[in-house]
Amino acid sequence: MEDEMRSMSINKVWDLEEIPKGTKTVSSKWVYKTKRDSKENIERHKARLVAKGFTQRERIDYTETFSPISSKDSFRIIMTLVAQYDLDLHQMDGIPERRFIRNVFMAQSKDFVVKGKENLGCRLKKSIYELNQASRQWYLMFDKTIRSFDFKENIENNLLYVDDILLASSDINLLLETKNFLSSNFDTKDIGEASYVLGIEIHRDRKKRVLGLSQKAYNENILKRYSMHKCKASLSQ
Q1: What are the residue boundaries of the Reverse transcriptase Ty1/copia-type domain, all occurrences included (predicted)?
Q2: Cα distance between residue 23 and residue 58, in whole Å
Q3: pLDDT of the residue at 95
Q4: Which of 72, 82, 96, 177 has its CA 20 to 30 A from that of 12?
Q5: What is the span of the domain harbouring residue 7?
Q6: Has residue 153 been placed in a domain?
Q7: Which helix (H) or strand (E) holds 40?
Q8: Under a CB-based contact definition with an 8 Å cutoff, are residues 127 and 98 in contact?
């Protein structure tokens, strides 16, 4: 939580100001997540401060919210090309850019109220998670930035899934150059060769140009969620 608040401060996400009379504030809450790899080992714990965007009113507090993301069909097409042409496949975990936003006030987190400024609110200068307009602003920022690097959008196969980024290339130097470009523009984590993305394990045998996809970990999690992980498997007749 302290790391998240430190990030908010470094990125100057808000200013503490007196809330104008009659202005509606958006509340906030903490969301905790444990990130695991394909073997269910804990990679890291994350705490994220998010806005209670469900209290915002359409056409009053926000307008457009549409933000395209990649489909699983797009993912399978890319994996087919990676296997067929023996492409290098790397993965990056991005943190959505908090883009400029106006006229939104958020109440201070009750866990981090600034002493002596209890009556002030957070006037958001940049978007945060769960604001209704947040995902669209992240997409617009990413789209503008990546186009400046001479990338062109594939209308049928969008390759950005929220903040999970896959990079496939026949030129390893170009791939590394692209990763450096993304890291210089966004707060990203370089994961290296892709092996687990969107709950899907990626298994490769580059000598045989074979690539396999598995959702074993995802399926096991579903079974555990519904207390069926100890059931016996059987084949239908």
Answers
A1: 11-233
A2: 16
A3: 62
A4: 177
A5: 2-225
A6: yes
A7: none
A8: yes
